[in-house]
Amino acid sequence: MDIKLIEVPLSDKHLLRRFIQVPRYIHREHWPNPQWVPPLSIERKMFFDPAKHPVWRHLHARLWIANDGLRDIGRVSAAVDRDHIEHHGEKCGFLGTFECPDDPALARHLCDTAEGWLVEQGMDKVIGPTAMNSNYEWGCMIEGFEREPGINMPYNPPYYAPLFEHCGYAKAKDLYQWGFDVQTPTPPRIARIADRVKKRDKISIRNLDTSRWDKEVRMAHDIYNAAWEKNWGFIPLDKTEWNHIADDLKLALEPSLGLVAEVDGRPVGLALSVKNLNPILKQMDGRLLPFGLLRMLWELKVKKSVNTGRLVLLGIRPEYRRRGLDVLLMVETHRAAQKIGYTFGELGWTLEDNDLINKPIQMFGAERITTYRVFEKELSRG
Q1: Rounded distance, CA 280 to CA 300, Å?
Q2: Rounded Cα distance, 378 and 212, in Å
Q3: Are 355 and 209 found together in one domain?
Q4: pTM of the prediction?
Q5: Residues 256, 257, 263, 267: is their CA dihedral positive or negative?
Q6: Three-state SS for 98?
Q7: Do both 115 and 203 map to the same domain?
Q8: Can you tell me the distance from the alpha carbon of 109 to that of 126, in angstroms, rounded to the nearest whole number?
Q9: Phi, psi of 321 (to 5 degrees)
């Protein structure tokens, strides 16, 4: 059967709606599974709207749907991010939003199409899969298929990695997701280290003050860009995009799990955890209206059914690294999570070779529960 690739302009709402719905075919029909969490359709529409999402101020992309004559069965995107190129000094594009049946020929057709456009844009290399760039969902799950993904983490069938390898992609970097039983006591040695660090460096720990939201968001943005500047794959976020992301996370934020480490009143470290909304999102089945929002508010505010979370950000200013501040923030987060009755927590993702954070996480007793792989490929102009 002939398969046609249809280009999807961002201005075409009908085609964009079809593009957004492709994962339902993969996870509900082709490879049905109970772990997949449908994203909110309205959120996806806003993400792909250049008038509503600031990522499009520095990124341009092309999107395609694969149609077999009866239905849409696959999709792919190719993106060029000016900020990534300027920060890393390399002509590297992104391949993303990849969905495909277990069909090597179709996977190659999708990848070849995306790569061809990137070559036209002057790119020498491609990395992926991504949701446009490395500041959003990225990586191909290669371990942990038996469990539901954490909030804002991707989920894909196990045959995706072999498909990428078939298309000439090789490992660029693995990303680790960690998990731990919150009700397990903090290891005594770790608790002693944390208390010693806090006393030695005269560090005070406070909660994010949501009554000063704009000021706290600016503070977090400053720490984030300073802490991650040298990390592999990092793309700096400007204030507009950071504010947009912060607003998106506001509903999921657990104020008691937003911790700021200060020295003489100056914020030097930040640990931010969010509620795992995925069980609620799964019930909503991607629909916010007419009753999805009411269901979410009921579960969060009335039933208070969420008792798991994800540590999404742990950043320390470079001059305060290697002094145990990461351990202190993890211990304080653990204590706060226990106090509000959380049962399970996730940390990550972290880079596979970031020993500065991975070793303290392991010392804490967390176990690696999921691995994601970012692939790369040199592009040929021949």
Answers
A1: 9
A2: 46
A3: yes
A4: 0.95
A5: negative
A6: strand
A7: no
A8: 16
A9: -80, 165
Q: Distance (Å, rounded) from C-alpha 78 to C-alpha 147? A: 29
Joined together, the tokens standing for residue 33 give 């599974």
- What 3-state DSSP class applies to 28? helix
Q: What is the DSSP-derived secondary structure letter of residue 130?
A: E
**What is the domain extent for residue 232?**
185-364
| Alpha-carbon distances of 170 from 127, 137, 200, rounded to whole Å | 9, 19, 45
Here the CATH number for the domain that contains residue 93 is: 3.40.630.30
Number of domains the chain contains: 2
The encoded tokens of residue 196 equal 């010693």
Within 10 angstroms of residue 209's Cβ, the number of other Cβ atoms is 13
Domain boundary at 142, 173, 204, which? 173
Contact 311, 271 (CB under 8 A): yes
3-state helix, strand, coil in the chain (%, to 5): 40, 30, 30
Same domain, 229 and 106: no
What stretches of 237-354 show up as alpha helix (H) in DSSP?
Answer: 239-249, 278-284, 292-297, 325-339
Q: Can you give the pLDDT of all 382 residues of the chain as single tens digits?
A: 589 999 999 999 999 999 999 999 999 999 999 999 999 999 999 999 999 999 999 999 999 999 999 999 999 999 999 999 999 999 999 999 999 999 999 999 999 999 999 999 999 999 999 999 999 999 999 999 999 999 999 999 999 999 999 999 999 999 999 999 999 999 999 999 999 999 998 999 999 999 999 999 999 999 999 999 889 999 999 999 999 999 988 888 888 999 999 999 999 999 999 999 999 899 889 887 766 677 787 777 767 888 999 999 999 999 999 999 999 999 999 999 999 999 999 999 999 999 989 999 999 899 999 999 999 999 987 6
Q: Is residue 134 part of a domain?
A: yes
- Amino acid at residue number 45: K
236 CB contacts (<8 Å, ≥6 apart)? 83, 87, 225, 229
**What gap in Å lies between CA 257 and CA 235, rounded to an integer?**
25
What DSSP state is assigned to residue 30?
I
Residue 195 backbone dihedrals phi, psi, to 5 degrees: -65, -35
